[in-house]
Amino acid sequence: MSPSSKYRVVVYGVDGIGQPYKSLESAVATKKACNSAANQSAGLIDVTHTDYNHHDLLCYWTIGNTGVTHAVALFLFQKLDFDYCGEFVKISNGSGTVQFYQTGCWPSGSKKYIVEVPFGKSSNITVNILLSKLKSRVRVQFLVLQTGLNSATVLPGWTVSADNITSTSILIQWTNLTSLLNHRVLYYVIRLNRTNGNALIQRIAQENTLNTEVGGLGRSTNYRVDVFGVDELGRPYRTLTVNATTKNIPATSGPVVTSCNFDYGLCSGWQQSYSDVFDWTRRAGSTSSSNTGPSSDHTSGSGYYMYIETSVPRVAGDNAKLKLSVSGNRELSCLTFYYHMYGNSMGTLTVVSGNARVFRTSGNRGNYWLKAERTIYLANSVTFEGIVGSSYTGDLAIDDVSISSGSCHGPTTYPTLPPSTSPGKYMYIETSRPRVFRDNAKLEYSVSSSDVGKLSCLTFYYHMRGDDINTLNVFNGNTRVFTKSGNQGKEWFKAKITMNLQSKVTFEGIRGTEFRGDIAIDDVSITTGICQGCTENVNQSFGTLDVRYTSKFDSHCNWVIGHSGIDQAVAIVSIHQIFFTDISEYIKIFDGNGTEVFALHGRVSSFHKRFTNISFGEYKNITIQVSLSHIWSNVKIDFGTLNQGLDSVGDSFNGRTLRVSLLN
Length: 664
Known about the structure:
Layout: E1 6-9, E2 12-14, E3 20-22, E4 26-29, E5 36-38, E6 42-48, E7 57-64, E8 72-81, E9 88-92, E10 98-103, E11 113-118, E12 124-131, E13 137-145, E14 153-154, E15 160-163, E16 170-174, H1 177-181, E17 185-194, E18 200-206, E19 211-214, E20 222-231, E21 236-238, E22 242-245, E23 256-260, E24 270-272, E25 281-284, E26 304-308, E27 319-325, E28 331-341, E29 348-353, E30 356-362, E31 370-378, E32 381-387, E33 396-405, E34 427-429, E35 440-446, E36 455-464, E37 471-476, E38 479-485, E39 493-500, E40 504-510, E41 519-528, E42 537-538, E43 542-548, E44 553-562, E45 570-579, E46 586-590, E47 596-601, E48 610-615, E49 621-628, E50 634-642
Parallel strand pairs: 5-7, 14-21, 39-44, 42-44
Antiparallel strand pairs: 1-4, 2-3, 6-13, 7-12, 8-11, 8-13, 9-10, 9-12, 15-16, 16-19, 17-18, 17-20, 20-21, 20-22, 23-33, 24-27, 25-26, 26-33, 27-32, 28-31, 28-33, 29-30, 29-32, 34-41, 35-40, 36-39, 36-41, 37-38, 37-40, 43-50, 44-49, 45-48, 45-50, 46-47, 46-49
InterPro entries: ConA-like_dom_sf, FN3_dom, FN3_sf, Ig-like_fold, MAM_dom, MAM_domain-containing
Domain Fibronectin type-III: 156-249
Pfam family, one: MAM
């Protein structure tokens, strides 16, 4: 429900023969949301906007001081997912002065950081959060300390080390502070600071953690490493500072030919092309448009990257080329780079070595930096081309480009054999040359006429491993009953689909951007009846369907709710929970005439409960279809069978009235 809102409440009762009854109507108003005091010395504030009616969610928290004279609150922001520029989080100190104020739009995946706020003369600190859009979220952990981290006591004998140092990461390990103090330590705070700048990386670790690996660091960069411990009384301690320098050479197959992270401009050999419409832009931090582009660079989180700005005056199809000139004689080399393609109107990124296209991808890839590796025959140039999509939410970016001698050691796409037929054969699509992006291959099975229309179970195994995997589709007649996209890992997965069999079943494999996209199938079978694990008929008058993905196969199930012998029966269906983690997952509900009355397709993490009346109609049954393909996915539905709809129920029966009490 929405905070500070009024609702009309009616309760229905249904007897043993399906006769519904209705209570008198009552009114209730919900309370204001979120106001709460947080007087403990450590805690978590985690608030998500879940109101489908788009009411503003305004929250206040007060964090109390436990009597310490110079207390400081430490805030670690783990998520700031804003989807509207009017949203904000504001933290004020004990004197009422705003110490931290962040407004939207702050895209998902924002980097973590720590804020210290003194209590001042007052005994509390105020946290104020406003969320306006569905799924906007703020998650922040807090600690109350007796003093700020920089004033923490250096504890003799407590040590920290920096190990396993690469070009982009450091493993930080520290000794157990609890055993040294002889009383409990609640949290550790890990801080890395560049010695030649103010770039700061901070993390919080739980009491039983004694190491953490910090990635995304700059190459050949010196860092000061400090670890702080906070005990159960809020007293901070610190180790002596350790200095660590990341390596200059990335972990590739051979010596680096060239590399550039754009922190100091375009490196030697890089230039804007003249055979395009506009230029790439160098930038630090977020791009100028909301809901698109990275929030920081890949190298360190505080450096620069190159991107294309797709706002006006850019139009769809405009291109920008960034060219790297190299001295190549078609030597076997490994091209490595990171790319970021976040936005609903994302265009295309293409990479060309000489005249050969070696990489191409299109569309929204999420708010992440993604790594690409390509083994190439190095020509005299490598060109990165960005093409504008349909609107301004199409800022794409690149960072940390390097070329090293020798081939890449990337993953292959060769499947392992399925468990049931080893060492037999399988069917697959070969995505190497001459295949190109979106080429497709179809494998058809013709169904015997005597089996057409029968309720049947299609079972098969599929394998989709590789950085360039595109899509596997399965069609029953002309209806797509299964789809899966992207890298699924090195294992074979089992899929089971309950369906009314049509004249043919088709398996379609679609090629991705490059050759690491082989898709395989094996052990295909069709049996009469529903797939094992799904209940065919649900003939009781009332019940619950609690569908969960519990094992390593795709579950596609049909349930048929019977009419219980009532001539004009109506089903009441209450959908309590839908949690989908994959775009291919769905729920569909059909009335007695076969008309789809409800449908929802994956990914769904927050669902507003749905309650509806459905007529059994001419065919005397109602069908519910659920398809789940990932662990944690689930659907929960309550249903009941009535001899009339709820809206037709009177307010009383036999001279008596049903009454409902509203409890606070």
